[in-house]
Write a structure and sequence with these properties.
Helices cover 22% and strands 46% of the residues. The chain is an alpha+beta fold. It has two domains: 42 residues; 137 residues, Lipocalin, CATH 2.40.128. It has an eight-stranded antiparallel beta barrel with strand order 1-2-3-5-6-7-8-9. The N and C termini lie far apart (77 Å).
Length: 184
């Protein structure tokens, strides 16, 4: 009888251990799932996600239309201010093939304005409208696709279209230009 009681006790202890281990696994899985769900819940973005000044690093190539020939390598920096409501202003300084672009006045190019839309999944679109150059008919227009990261602290962009100054709408040149920014 004593042997039988010991066997039953061992079986009960083993069963308790198995149930406890299973509970730990379920708890760990549930915790991981809840954490993933919480991360997703906090990814809801809007125009208000972008507010304030962001420092951008810009890099890429602009191609000769209709070819794979690179017309100019572009590098630069920009300071973009987002108003939290879909409007932006920007100043930038760029080089093409290592030579700085001559602005109308010394220093950064200014008077750049635009609009942006941030989607709930933290992707978005923007348009930057450049001022009309002296003696010109229209300013350049750049449209961007972007992703917001780090809860609005970072932005990663790619140029979707680039219309040079003094050209009619729809006259885009092929470009492979991207930028990355962090909030100041």
């Amino acid at each position: 009888m004593k042997t039988s009681l010991i066997k039953i006790t061992k079986a009960v202890v083993a069963l308790i251990a198995i149930v406890a281990a299973g509970g730990l696994l379920v708890s760990a899985f549930h915790s991981e799932t809840a954490t993933a769900q919480n991360r997703t819940m906090f990814r809801i973005c809007s125009n208000a996600t972008l507010f304030g000044d962001y420092a951008f690093r810009i890099s890429g190539e602009i191609f000769v239309p209709g070819t794979n020939t690179i017309a100019v390598y572009r590098d630069g920096v920009a300071m973009t201010t987002f108003d939290g409501m879909g409007g932006l202003t920007q100043v930038d300084w760029l080089v093409g093939n290592g030579v700085s672009d001559p602005p109308p006045t010394p220093g950064f190019h200014g008077n750049e304005t635009g609009t942006y839309t941030v989607n709930p999944d933290c992707t978005g679109n923007a348009e930057i409208d450049f001022p009309i150059p002296p003696g010109g008919t229209s300013g350049a227009v750049i449209t961007l696709k972007f992703v917001v990261g780090e809860h609005g602290q970072a932005i990663h962009t790619i140029v979707a279209s680039l219309r040079p100054p003094n050209t009619p709408p729809g006259t885009n040149v092929p470009a492979n230009v991207h930028s990355d920014a962090e909030k100041l």
